[in-house]
Amino acid sequence: MAKYFKYFNKINYNVNDNYFDVVTNLMNRFTLEEQFKTNVAVYYKYSIKDGETPEQLSKKFYGETERHWIILSMNNIVDPFYDWPLSNRAFIKYVENKYTTSQYADTANTNISCRVSINSSYFSFVQSSNGA
After folding, report:
1. pLDDT the model gives residue 66
2. Alpha-carbon radius of gyration of the chain
3. What is the DSSP letter of 30?
């Protein structure tokens, strides 16, 4: 991660009235030109496998994990925790936590069923539990 910040601008930060320190400007932002992002020739066709992370794909395609931001930016992913596909296990846990609370739960039987499409692949999940 340290390599990521080495290209950010440095600024003088006023630590106190008599002392300034040179620090990395964490407020820097970048954008890729839209004409570049819409050019299909710059993309690889790839289906994300269960549990793969942007860092793993970066290692696979670019040879290092520090370039994961390219994959995220080119796919308009701002929040890698919620914009990136969850693993099957994490998705099921998310659905269970969200939809098995008392406001959604049936006292006799609870069935959770959903169908998700990720890159034209469909995943169906069904969980049943018997209540008391």
Report:
1. 85
2. 22
3. -
